[in-house]
Write a structure and sequence with these properties.
- This protein is of the alpha/beta class and 315 residues long.
- The protein has two domains: 6-233, no CATH class; 234-315, no CATH class.
- The protein has nine helices and 17 strands.
- The protein has helices spanning 33-36, 39-55, 78-94, 96-99, 116-132, 149-156, 197-209, 223-229, 255-268; strands at residues 6-8, 11-17, 27-30, 62-68, 71-73, 104-107, 138-141, 163-167, 189-193, 216-220, 237-241, 245-246, 249-250, 275-281, 284-291, 294-302, 312-314.
- A five-stranded parallel sheet has the order 6-7-8-9-10, with no helix packed on it. Strands 3-2-4 form a three-stranded antiparallel sheet, with no helix packed on it.
- Helix 3 (78-94) packs across helix 5 (116-132) and helix 5 (116-132) packs parallel to helix 6.
- The protein starts with 5 loop residues before the first strand and ends with a strand.
Length: 315
């Protein structure tokens, strides 16, 4: 759905056959902007769709996936984004027949400049929406300070949930506590963004409860915490993302830095280490030519001039 103000892809319903022998064609249904901006029409539409699929002979061979995708704004505002988030939560909270089909939720932006009553209302909506998503498999909720204990409790109560990505700084927005993380069982993947010290201290206890299912643990953290984590004696895979944009300021990063960090990890990890790597996003490439003691600085690559092979440097 495109307009001169912004481009949005707020909700996509994808269905695909589970049985390859089925002759039923795959379906991809996109919710139009008119329906999104009119919750009552959207709810009516989703109800009709569910009834049609229920009566279909092929319904039993269809897998439903509903993705909440990020919103891309060309010159929009956060208020508009907040309005869309409210509508999505209201729809899922009030339309359990639609929420039943949701397999993945991604909220990478979320309204947080709310008054007291609005905060309680959005927490209640989000809690009910999560409760209705009984088949949810993956959840990403990455905006700092927008989670609450009630929301995490509902997520932890979903037996279908296998992948969780959250901003791991317990905040004042509805208040949640580090111990809330211990309620999650059976996760295959956990991603923690900038975790507080209290969260990191709970990781050993949490890992012990999920050791039979956990396949991926990603911790996005500051250098000091990373250096402490990589000394683990039982780590098998280590992947580092080197940050060049810190607090809005660009820091220079030489390619040898990545090599030095990898060597540091290799020296401190145990014999179980099997794979190690690092990467960083490149915003500008400075070039120089050296011959003996002579060094000539060439014009830098920047913006769209950066060759594709330099956009992401891996070691």
């Amino acid at each position: 759905c495109q307009s001169s103000a912004y481009v949005i892809m707020p909700l996509i319903l994808v269905t695909s056959p589970l049985d390859k022998s089925s002759m039923t064609p795959c379906m991809k249904l996109e919710v139009t902007r008119d329906l999104l901006f009119c919750p009552s029409s959207f709810t009516k539409y989703s109800s009709t769709l569910s009834e049609e699929l229920a009566w279909s002979n092929a319904a039993s061979s269809i897998r439903f996936v509903v993705h909440m995708l990020g919103f891309v704004y060309m010159n929009g505002s956060k208020y508009t984004l907040g309005t869309l988030v409210w509508m999505i939560l209201e729809t899922l909270a009030n339309a359990p027949h639609l929420a039943f089909h949701v397999k993945a939720l991604e909220f990478r932006d979320f309204p947080n400049h709310l008054n007291f009553d609005e905060r309680h209302r959005i927490i209640a909506l989000a809690t009910q929406a999560i409760s209705n998503c009984v088949n949810l498999r993956s959840c990403s909720w990455t905006r700092d300070g927008t989670l609450s204990t009630r929301m995490l409790q509902e997520l932890a109560g979903l037996e279908s949930l296998k992948e969780l990505e959250i901003n791991a700084k317990p905040g004042a927005f509805g208040a949640w506590f580090p111990e809330d993380l211990l309620a999650f069982r059976g996760l295959q993947s956990l991603t923690l963004i900038m975790p507080a010290r209290s969260i990191v201290e709970l990781l050993p206890a949490w890992s012990a409860e999920n050791k039979d299912t956990l396949e991926s643990l990603v911790v996005i953290c500051k250098d000091a915490l990373a250096q402490a984590l990589v000394t683990g004696r039982h780590l098998r895979n280590v992947h580092l993302t080197l940050m060049t944009d810190v607090a809005g300021e660009m820091r220079p990063l030489h390619l040898l830095t990545a090599q030095e960090i990898c060597q540091h990890v290799a020296r401190n990890c145990g014999d179980s280490l099997q794979l190690i790597g690092s990467q960083t996003r490149v915003w500008q490439v400075k070039r120089s030519f050296s011959h003996g003691e002579t060094i000539r600085t060439l014009g830098p690559y920047s913006g769209q001039q950066i060759p594709e092979q330099f956009l992401m440097m891996r070691a």
